Amino acid sequence: MDLQMSTFRPRSADPAEDPEAVAWLRAVSQGFHQDRLTDEALGRSLQGLLDDGFTLRAVHDHDIPAPADPRRPVATFSSTDGTINAGAGRMLPARLITDVTVRPSHRRRGLLRTMMSAELAEAKAAGLPVAALTVTEGGIYRRFGFGPATFEAKIEVATDSRFALHTPPDGGGQVVLVDAAVLEEHAGEIFRRYHAQTLGSVQRFSVIPTHVSGLWDWSSREENRRVRGAIFVAESGEPEGYVAWEARRDPDEFGKITVRDLVPLTPRAYLALWDFLGHVDLIDSVRWGSAPTEDPLRFALTEPDLYRVRGLDANVWLRMLDVPAALTARAWQSTGSCVLAVEDSLDLVGGRYRIKIADGDAEVTRTDDEADAAMDAAALGSICLGGVRPSVLAAAGLIRELRPSVAASLDQLFAATGPVWGITHF
Ligand SMILES: CC(C)(COP(=O)(O)OP(=O)(O)OC[C@H]1O[C@@H](n2cnc3c(N)ncnc32)[C@H](O)[C@@H]1OP(=O)(O)O)[C@@H](O)C(=O)NCCC(=O)NCCS
Questions:
Q1: C-alpha 108 – ligand 1 centre gap (Å)
Q2: At 94, which helix (H) or strand (E)?
Q3: Among 25, 55, 148, 379, fewest CB within 10 Å belongs to which?
Q4: Are 238 and 300 members of one domain?
Q5: Residue 97 beta carbon below 6 angstroms from any ligand 1 atom
Q6: What is an example of a Pfam family matching this protein (predicted)?
Q7: 118 lines ligand 1 (CB under 6 A)
């Protein structure tokens, strides 16, 4: 095998003008078991990569025997830079990683490790404080220093005749049904405002409004005409949240709604959208995969048993690249200090750090002082936004207390300024 890794930028949204990027896209769709890409899908994908400033990484096998096409990469990887809301409206810059595939004939030879190591080193050199990804398989990324940092609940709410809220929407504002094009028009701006105010949120790529509205489904690579949408409009006329969903129903039976995207800007918009979903006729349950782990809906329902958690998934995994930059970027709420020893098998952030917190800010410096606790880079990635408590990781054997009961004081020190919740998948 003659393996060679390269990085490149897509050049054109016209598939005919960018065969290198087209071959890369075909490899990605193969890796994720998607349909072969049509010209329309290729054009839209290239446009999306261009709009979001993606860099593509590929490994080619120049020794691959005919009839295999040597221009088709045997491994793919892509990245761009975005932001993560780190509390109090502060934005943490992040290298966002996606499209990780390795061809079955070339797996388990270290190609992912080679691509990931190069990417993380380059992101660090470029000054990014963290890298982030969302996973299909949770067992892969801890070895590269990624820890799960935000979570989402998979819920099912029974919406039969028992569905009612303690405080039904009071008429201040209204949920209105909208066509896909109108939903697409508003989805980007509503999400932008959600991202600006929600701790744990990750910036979305430019294609998402088209995807959530169903005008172009990025999974099926065609229009999804099942998608319906509604917007909560405040008395002022301002959109304050939206929901997009698909309903499925067999004749003569009650059906189910699956929420595709639900983006509230205020608690009242959240409840109003749920009140709307709970009263759709011919439907007896609503499923959603991105509910907050501390969901107000559970308490708003007069019959809490209607609410069922079907699963709890990690959403965003974070990888420290620059500990002082990452921790000073977030918002803090307690006062105190600690010394953490960080171990890093990739040698990007290993060492001891003193973290002093006062007045909502942290001062983070390297130190030779004795550490209070030791952890690997992945554990620090998990606790860095406050979405995972250090004492939980200590109990899991992932943080070592070097002073008795220090995990409890770390819990206070690292406590988030609010609920940590993200609804971005990439
Ligand atoms: C997952 C995938 C990218 C791995 O690529 P790869 O080149 O075979 O991985 P590497 O040989 O570089 O392995 C790197 C390490 O990850 C481990 N690893 C790889 N795939 C793994 C998996 N699916 N589960 C658990 N560990 C895995 C390897 O054992 C190796 O561990 P080590 O270095 O500590 O010994 C590849 O199998 C693939 O393309 N799968 C389909 C698409 C996919 O799942 N993408 C990831 C979405 S999150």
A1: 6
A2: strand 91-102
A3: 55
A4: yes
A5: no
A6: Acetyltransf_9
A7: no
Mean pLDDT of each 10-residue bin along the chain, 426 residues long: 96 97 97 94 97 98 94 98 97 98 96 98 98 94 98 98 92 94 98 98 98 95 96 97 97 95 97 98 97 97 98 97 98 96 98 97 98 98 98 98 97 96 96
From 54, 141, 232, 242, the catalytic residue: 141
Predicted local distance difference test score (pLDDT) of residue 169: 85
Per DSSP bridges, beta strands 174-178 and 283-291 are: unpaired
Task: Give binding residues for acetyl-CoA as ranges.
Answer: 100-102, 108-113, 136-137
373-376 β-sheet, strand order: 361-366, 351-358, 336-343, 373-376, 399-401
Residue found by looking up tokens 């909502």 in the block: 360
Are residues 173 and 68 part of one domain? no
Q: Are residues 173 and 278 in the same domain?
A: yes
Which pLDDT score, from 0 to 100, does residue 204 have?
A: 98
Report the separation in Å between the CA atom of 348 and the middle of ligand 1, taken as the mean of its atom positions. 21
Write out the binding residues: 100-102, 108-113, 136-137
Indicate whether 20 and 119 sit together in one domain: yes
C-alpha–C-alpha distance, residues 361 and 376, integer Å: 23
Q: Which of 295, 314, 333 is the last residue of a domain?
A: 314
**Is 156 buried (19+), middle (13-18) or exposed (0-12) by CB count in 10 A?**
middle
Distance between CA atoms of 79 and 116, rounded to whole angstroms? 11
399's tokens: 């943080």
Residue 33 resides in a domain: yes
Residue 139 lies inside a defined structural domain of this protein = no
Ligand 1 pocket check for 138: Cβ under 6 Å: no
CATH number at residue 42: 3.40.630.30
135 located within any domain = no
- In 3D, which of 406, 386, 392, 408 has the Cα closest to residue 341? 406
Whether 143 lines ligand 1, by a CB cut-off of 6 Å, is yes
> Looking at residue 140, what is its pLDDT?
95
